[in-house]
Write a structure and sequence with these properties.
Elements lengths: L17 E10 L4 E4 L1 H10 L4 E8 L4 E7 L3 H14 L15 H10 L3 E7 L2 E2 L5 E7 L6 E11 L1
Antiparallel strand pairs: 1-8, 2-7, 3-5, 3-8, 4-7, 5-6
Length: 155
């Protein structure tokens, strides 16, 4: 394929016959990335999802979700460093009700996402080869985080 050219696959069409919702409780270890990809895929297998979309939503404001590289762990380490530089704990934040990492955690959530949607075909998420779904814990201490999974599509 020549540089700058674009091709499009043949569209697929299914009737939506199902909305299925579940949740995960994820015990974090404090500031870290937790790979949720296998858990989301297990949910899709369990409900025998065929084609549609899965939404992953975190019910918190000091933890977030992202899709990122899963091949080299130094990527996650560098992302943690970058987020800390963008929202340092010693920046003189007014909101510090739960400690010095409280407001930086909210800013890091603002910079990432609380909801992701991934297309599903043949029961599998259409993630790229090196992509994974991560929960990012922005707080220093461990937390139990609730993540809602919802599939909309054909089963």
């Amino acid at each position: 394929m020549a540089a700058g050219s674009i091709t499009r696959a043949t569209p697929s069409r299914v009737a939506i016959n199902s909305v299925v919702t579940s949740s995960l409780i994820v015990q974090t270890a404090g500031r870290s990335f937790t790979d949720l990809t296998r858990d989301v895929q297990a949910f899709l297998r369990e409900i025998v999802a065929a084609e549609g979309a899965v939404t992953v939503f975190i019910r918190h404001t000091s933890a977030s979700l992202t899709i990122q590289e899963n091949a080299d762990p130094t990527v996650l380490r560098d992302l943690t460093t970058a987020l800390s530089r963008l929202a340092p704990e010693d920046a003189g934040w007014v909101h510090d009700t739960e400690g010095p990492d409280d407001m930086p955690a909210h800013i890091k959530t603002l910079l990432s996402s609380v909801s992701l949607q991934v297309p599903v075909r043949d029961g599998r998420m259409l993630l790229g080869t090196w992509q994974a779904i991560y929960l990012i814990e922005h707080r220093a201490r461990p937390h139990a985080r609730e993540v809602v999974l919802q599939f909309i599509g054909a089963v």
